[in-house]
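Q: Start with the shorter request: fold the first protein.
A: Done. Sequence, then structure:
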Amino acid sequence: MYLIIVVGLLLLVLYGPGWWVRRVMARYAEPADRYPGSGGELARHLLKRLKINDVIVEETSRGDHYDPDARAVRLSPDNYHGRSLTAITVAAHEVGHAIQHAIGYPPFQLRDRLVRMALIGQKVGAFLLLAIPVIILLTRHPGSGLLLFLGSFLTMGLATLVHFVTLPTEFDASFNRAMPILEQGGYLKEGDCHHARRILTAAAMTYLAQSLMSLLNIWSWLRMLRR
């Protein structure tokens, strides 16, 4: 009984944030033509208005994000072309990151460094998982495989820790950058401010939700290694 409760709580922690983010984004993606301009158009307009002239806006299939290396606001097809409340709010959130970058916001710079470390950690963790059968075969000691598994779990779980630590940077992009721009600029229709806040909360939680889900990759790797 206790095991069922623990497993249920674990699944809730891992799946819950991602499910809530997707639900909020989908809810306000309709009507698709609520606003006269698309998310991509709004992002370009805001960057021009804020005189951030070295940042471009692009469509991507890899999810909405700001790339500090390429200095690019990248939006998914639905948000790049869409004219829904979700599209313009997510666009404003990503522009919020461009603002942080432009002004040298220290937490953003720290977040960028930590994310790079987390990406390396995920690759190292995947390599360690692949190495488990080889090491056990060479050493003939199951304990070595357990040590490698623990090491891979810690390194692959680094991304989750990073996004917990840098979550305030995401909320800053949402509520100290994007929301004031949307409200003070009169970009939102009457009654949409409250809903935009929910979307901005979801946008701030996106990376954390994705990193929590990535922890499940460890079990996928283990199932593959058993075959």
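Q: Next, the second protein, separately.
A: Sequence, then structure:
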Amino acid sequence: MVDRALLADRIAAIRDATARIRSVLPPTVSAFVHDRTTREVVVLNMFVAIQTAVDLATHWLADAGWDVPTTYGELFTSLADHGVLERPLASRLAAASGLRNLIAHQYGVINATRIYEIATTDLADLDSFCAALAARAQ
């Protein structure tokens, strides 16, 4: 199991990033698209939250003595294989790791409308990830 202090620190970082996204997200996609500063805050905090989840998944697998996959998406699938995460959640987090790669490596133009959709619907998956790991660490 991952060190409790590390777990608490990483969970706090994820929760802080998702809270920051929620605090700045405007009520409409149009307002989001037209506000560069808000888009940048949201994208940066999405990256931080997803990257931190990737880091935490890696630590969890390694500390448990399980094989650590070579791709970010497989980290979450592996946690599901070991019963740490529910498979549907793991699949969604694996997809989120693709967004992390898009942001980090600028694979094409980031679609502001899609980022808004993710920010308004998918942040709960990061919250569920944190809750699942916290519950397993008890």
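Q: Describe the second briefly.
A: The chain has a mean pLDDT of 93. The helical segments are 4-24, 29-33, 36-64, 72-81, 87-105, 112-121, 123-136.
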